[in-house]
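Researcher: Next entry in the queue.
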Amino acid sequence: MNIAAWLEKNARSHGDRPAISVGGAARLGFAEWALRVRRMAGHLRGRFSCAPGARVAIAMTNCPEFLEAQFAIWHAGLVAVPINAKLHRNEFAYILEHCGARLVFASPDLEATIGPLAGTIAGLEVIVAGSPEWQRLFLGEGTELVHRSGDDPAWLFYTSGTTGRPKGATLTHRNLLVAALSYFADIDWVAPTDAILHAAPLSHGSGLYGLPHIARAANSVIPESGHFDPAEIAELLPRWQGVSFFAAPTMVTRLVANGAFAAADHRSLKTIVYGGGPMYVADLERALDLLGPRLSQIYGQGEAPMTITGLSKAHHAAREHPRWRERLGSTGIARTDVEVRVVDAEDRDVPLGESGEVLARGDVVMAGYWDDPEATARALRGGWLHTGDIGAFDEDGFLTLKDRAKDLIISGGANIYPREVEEVLLRHPAVAEASVVGRPHPDWGEEVVAFIVARGAPPAEAELDRLCLSEIARFKRPKAYRFVAALPKNNYGKVLKTELRKLVEEEPGRR
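Model: Structure for this entry, 511 residues:
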């Protein structure tokens, strides 16, 4: 089993079809892409002496060369290590050393960051896309596909590392195959005439969601900018058929708020798969009003790529259901390829409606963390992935996430889930974004502090108090509001609550 076989199959059956496009122009067909991959794989095995299982990193912003390198690595039986292009040089160095990469492919914009690491990391070679050394990789006869077993590593998915050193989730060929097949089972069928638009990083969610499209010989479209730009996406939609893309919730919100995208012709837009953070109901309703039933939510982690639970397009469209809005606030039902539980501190199932840690088990769950047996044992104890997320099932099997376990606020012995408070605050028309954290309190243990990005003039705190008191228990109401120009976020749009807690700690009179 080697998922690079998809490309070989498509080269035979759909050789002339657009395989990789940039903006509105096709760049490579499947036959040419497969040929370049075979030749590059030959150099990896021959000139660079990479034996099956060796790690090769990709440090690139979104570009066609990323996909060429990724499939060549797999074709040669190697392990791909895609790295977030926005990391600091020290973070790149840590990941490259941790995984033991022999070689790293870099995009030209990262040459100044990645290039010097070849002189500090023993045995590391750097090849910049487009350079003469890169062009040499496409000379020669190439090599045949190297067979791998389903349990062999294919992708080291390094976590964002917002709370410490990133860990490399080891995703096997079977993990990626099952994740791709479950896309067809739960999200969408894909036709060769469809297109996947890579506006989010290929190194993470967008790259994973590209796999089922490549398996079905669909077109991988990379914006000319190489990144997320709502106006650019608006221009690209009419150019391609059956367009789908992955977006973080903050990206969906920005799309809907963008005038050019709102006014665009959406007829060729097939699906927006969103996930990777909380999608607030108020924002989701605005997106549905604009786009109709084209949204599908997934809840997953790098440790279980693309899949734990899902809220399908049909669920989004079912406005007649008496609990439609309640379901919009959930992450949907367990996906086809996993079992999902909610448990207490002793890993015992909790009753429906009660909160606990979300656990998942199935062939999509990672093999473990690279070179970290202790973290692997903790995360996979008892044969279940311990996600660290707090959630609750309702009687129909819909999972609602409350928060990360570490974000839970305990005040006076009662649990307060930040998302519940954030959802209420976002109902105020002058609140664009909201994030809630706990602040130490001498009597209650913690109290709620809300950080708010206003839409125009900041609302009066008394208005926010009245809104909260009309919707949630008094003890959950924020005891302080902090109006900020922007919320701190990582490169994937997730709010960094660790940074917000630091701001709280730095308040005058606090240590």
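Model: The chain has two domains: 5-393, 408-505.
Researcher: Noted, moving on.
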